[in-house]
Amino acid sequence: MPTTKMREVEKILSSQRQLEGAGFIVRRPLPAPGLPALDPFLLIDEMGPVEYRPGEAVGAPDHPHRGFETVTYVLEGEVVHEDSAGHRGTIKPGGVQWMTAGGGIIHSETPSAGVMKEGGRAHGFQIWVNLPARLKMTRPRYQELEADQLPTASTSDGLAHVKIIAGEALGTRAAIDTLTPIVYQDWSLRPGADVEVALDPAQRALVYVFGGSARVGNDGKSVKDGQLAVLGGGDVVRLRAADEDARLLLLAGVPLNEPVARYQVG
Questions:
Q1: What is the pLDDT of residue 58?
Q2: I need a labelling partner for 147 at 20 to 30 A (CA). Which of 17, 91, 161, 266 fits?
């Protein structure tokens, strides 16, 4: 049988809390000081968690995207999106929107009217995935899945559960079609959980913990709430819970090794 190589933690980045859009709070581990990207990932934002009182909720008014993809995953609250091509919809709790900006689009994301009026808790993620040069001018497209459309799987002991946004885990494949090979998985681990996930050796792999703490790799490196672990090479990643429940994102993608042109107002 072929041997496997376990991926171990090479670096841990702590997220920084800051304001984004019209003034909502994010925890951002990437970009980090001196680290503008982890190819092919350009940005990782954890939006909230935050509790809004009536009339307080804010979002991101009209802004341009071009040459990459934005993946919005809502855990709590509701996000209304509109764009310059006439698309409009609402991402509800547990839902995902995979937007390929491609050749360019003007986009807005705001809380729903209900959240604006009544307030409530908001929590979710937005991750930017770079596109290779050959696809940067592709036609914009949306893939939107509600919570019950996302494939899920659990280990036989029931201690590890995964929602599969992109890629494959525990013999279950994602429903979303990605233009480049991407892994995006939401793992919930209970104490005693111990799971191994196969990954393409060509992919760069990251683990972002957003609840509790997890032990990653055979070395069992502790990765805590709000930390992003950059993993080394290999074809398997091992995830374990510590003495408490853990919640994390497993991300992986093949580096494009292409220059990135950025533009920032201000």
A1: 67
A2: 17
What average pLDDT score do residues 21-27 get? 72
CA distances from 34 to 31, 228, 258 (A): 8, 15, 18
Chain mean pLDDT for the chain: 88
| Conformational region of residue 33, where left means phi above 0, alpha means psi within -120 to 50, and beta covers everything else | beta
- Which is more confident, 252 or 258? 252
> Residue for token digits 């042109």?
261
Q: Domains in the chain, please, with CATH?
A: 15-146 (2.60.120.10), 148-253 (2.60.120.10)
Q: Is the pLDDT of residue 104 over 90?
A: no
